[in-house]
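assembly run, all chains below
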Amino acid sequence: MKKKMIRNISLAMVLLVLGAVISLQFKSTSYNKELAAYENKRSDELKDELIQEKKNNDLLSDKNAELLKEIASYESKQGGANTALQNAKDDLSKASILGGLVAVKGKGIIVTIKDTAYYVVEDVDILKVINELKASGAQAISINDERIVATTEVRTAGNYIMVNGQQLVSPYEIKAIADPVGLENSLKIIGGIVEELQAYFKVTIEKSDNIKIPKWRYADKMSPYINRLTKVTD
Amino acid sequence: MKLNAGKIVLLITFFVFGIVVSMQCKTIYENNKLQADLQIKDEQVIADITAAKQKAKDLLDMIEKNEKAKSEYIQSLANNKTKAELIKTNRKLNLANLVSGLTDVRGAGIVIQMNDAIKTKNSSNSYYSNMQLIIHDSDILKLINDLKIAGAQAISINDERLISTSGIICAGPTMLININKYAVPFVIRAIGNSEKLFAAVENSDRIFLMRRDGLRIDIQKDENVKILKYNYDVDELISSLEVAAK
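ok done. output:
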């Protein structure tokens, strides 16, 4: 009887433990499921966040690309304006040099013609010298520092010679800048003229590496010299 | 061996117990594995998120920088410093081109047609009288100077614009003007005060002599004289000139 009782007690204990273990297992499994669900939820949230970030980055990239495009268009506009400005400046510089609107320097010659006791230098004499200088490639010419431009007249007026409306008197110092190759040519041609003029006047020719010719006297007030011209555009 | 009820119960109990223990073991193992897997996956996603956030920050920096550059451009275009300077430069350029002969122009003025004299039976055949019958460079040179004295603002000979460097050079039977040679007839156009220009040429002693010698000279006032621009390379004309500082 005692032996049977011990067996029954141990059986009861075993069953008790078994019950506890089964309940534990149950609990563990359900906890596990809960955990998995939680983990999954967290993963989903993370994935959502990542997707959101990526979407955000795409938007930012688009915006940046748009900006870069705008900047490029501004750059090309600016660049275009800069190029146009540079071209205009270059053209202005050339026209100003050619038109006598700026002072220039360079290599060239100086021809001096002086009245003598019997002969007075006249406009035609000066005109001839200037024409010969032009013929031999002079790029800038002045008489007594009056720059010869397209409209410059040379006119005898009594004992003076009028150039650019200014009274010049003897000696007449004609400066010309020419390209070094044409310079010898100039000297030769001017030599011919010089011989011709030397019969009447005192004429000297001098070569110089540093000739300075001032700008046209009316460079800054040229309106009276172009007011009758209408630009033709077609 | 006799099976009694107690032993059978015990047997079943241990059987179930064994299964439960093994199940529990398996569950724990799988649970660990799952958790590890999830963790690895999450770590990856978190790393991606961090990278994405960094990229977003970089993009924002770039956007800020570019916004700034854009607004600078807008401001500079709005100020239109370049455009204003361009307008100013072009205005100066127009004037410089007008005065230097680099623009086609029109205006009131005169047109002079000149041709050599027609030889008649009565004409003397000597060299000197023959020379009197033709137009010389000095005639043209004098005439052009007369036009300038009378205030001509633009002059052309046979559509060659006379600029600061244009000479009138005798080249045998022709005349070299700018870079071209021309034979008679010559057409000289000048823009200015047409009355003054006309009077200057009509009263020129050189014209008087030329007419006396039978050269054909026709002078017309014209309210709409067109004079072409100097149309050749300008660089060549200024190649040896250096702008001198004041």
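The longest strand of chain A covers residues 202-213.

The longest helix of chain A spans residues 2-99.

not gonna interpret more than that til we talk
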